[in-house]
Amino acid sequence: MNQIKLFSPATIANVSCGFDVLGLCLESVGDEMTITKTAQPGIRITEIVGTDLPLEAEKNVAGVAALALLAHLQPDCGFEIRIVKNIKAGSGIGSSAASAAGAVFGINQLLGAPLTNKELVHFAIQGEKLASGSAHADNVAPALLGGFTLVRSYEPLDIITIPSPNELYVTVIHPHIELKTKDARSVLKENIPLKKATIQCGNLGGLISGLYTGDYGLIGRSLHDELVEPIRSILIPQFDELKAAAKTAGALGGGISGSGPSVFALSKGKETAAKAADAMSAIMLQTSVPFDVHVSPINPTGIKIL
Ligand code: ADP
């Protein structure tokens, strides 16, 4: 096999109380990537369709992640990467992660899969470091492994896949305003009061437990971010209205997707998720800000070979 074509999915990181540790994988939005083995060593990004991103490997997250993997595997060949970008960069639904994860997944497959998808996370996060200044794994891990993933530890990297109930659906709305991950990080506080940490731990434990047991009520009660959302949501106009509208429409709860500006809601059933999408769209239509909205089940497998 000399060429591979992939669907590399969008993902939601910072799932509410799971800041920097809990992510989930979407099914209905993603990039397409074609990776080709070449005799010439190194990485060349030949084309990016749909958006204006750098083609130099060292400036593109796909290239940076791929080069990190090549430095480790030392193959006697190189690779060309072509990306059809359907996930807008800076949207907060893992645009950079889709490219980084797709690149390392495709190269690993073309080399006969010497590494597991879990092992590939380490290389994909080198790309994330370029995009946001922090090597966070809560987008690339669900992209590579599917479902919900928990980063139990960064040093050493320890990633756990969390099962979720079949009827759990995601609504995610992307207001077309620019909010850089670096800027969204700069507003965060270094230290947190013990009382707030305790509330966050309780909710994260509750959310994980609700996902395992399919207890939608518990999932809803636990979708509360005590630490980051109150600070970051100020950067997202209409955040409170969007979240309230989704809940009034029947969603279990929601929060900021990644570092924003996208806002997500989780619902039991596709119908309720679609109602949440309508309610959130109605809020956006009262503004002049363009937006797009997606309804998706949880993608259980992550990146797919097409
Ligand atoms: P998202 O959460 O949607 O991934 P980020 O702000 O974390 O958004 O990352 C997007 C940043 O990474 C942008 O500055 C973009 O220029 C840069 N970037 C470099 N290569 C890529 C790529 N292949 N795909 C997406 N973004 C890229």
From TrEMBL:
**Pfam families in alphabetical order:** GHMP_kinases_C, GHMP_kinases_N
- Gene3D superfamilies per the record? 3.30.230.10, GHMP kinase, C-terminal domain (3.30.70.890)
Q: Which reaction does it catalyse?
A: L-homoserine + ATP = O-phospho-L-homoserine + ADP + H(+)
> What keywords are assigned to this protein?
Amino-acid biosynthesis, ATP-binding, Cytoplasm, Kinase, Nucleotide-binding, Threonine biosynthesis, Transferase
Per the record's keyword annotation, is NADP included, yes or no? no
This entry carries the following GO cellular component terms, namely: cytoplasm
GHMP kinase N-terminal domain residues: 64-147
Q: Which domain of life is it from?
A: Bacteria
Q: Name one GO biological process term.
A: threonine biosynthetic process
* GO MF annotation: an example: ATP binding
Entry EC no(s): 2.7.1.39
Give the InterPro entries listed for this entry.
GHMP_kinase_C_dom, GHMP_kinase_C_sf, GHMP_kinase_N_dom, Homoserine_kinase, Ribosomal_Su5_D2-typ_SF, Ribsml_uS5_D2-typ_fold_subgr
Q: Where is the GHMP kinase C-terminal domain?
A: 208-282
**Compartment list:** Cytoplasm
Biochemical pathway: Amino-acid biosynthesis; L-threonine biosynthesis; L-threonine from L-aspartate: step 4/5
Protein purpose: Catalyzes the ATP-dependent phosphorylation of L-homoserine to L-homoserine phosphate.
Task: Kindly give the PANTHER family that the UniProt entry links to this protein.
Answer: HOMOSERINE KINASE, HOMOSERINE/4-DIPHOSPHOCYTIDYL-2-C-METHYL-D-ERYTHRITOL KINASE
| Family label | Belongs to the GHMP kinase family. Homoserine kinase subfamily.
Q: Which HAMAP family match?
A: Homoser_kinase
Q: What is this protein called?
A: Homoserine kinase
Q: What is the lineage of its organism?
A: Bacteria, Pseudomonadati, Bacteroidota, Flavobacteriia, Flavobacteriales
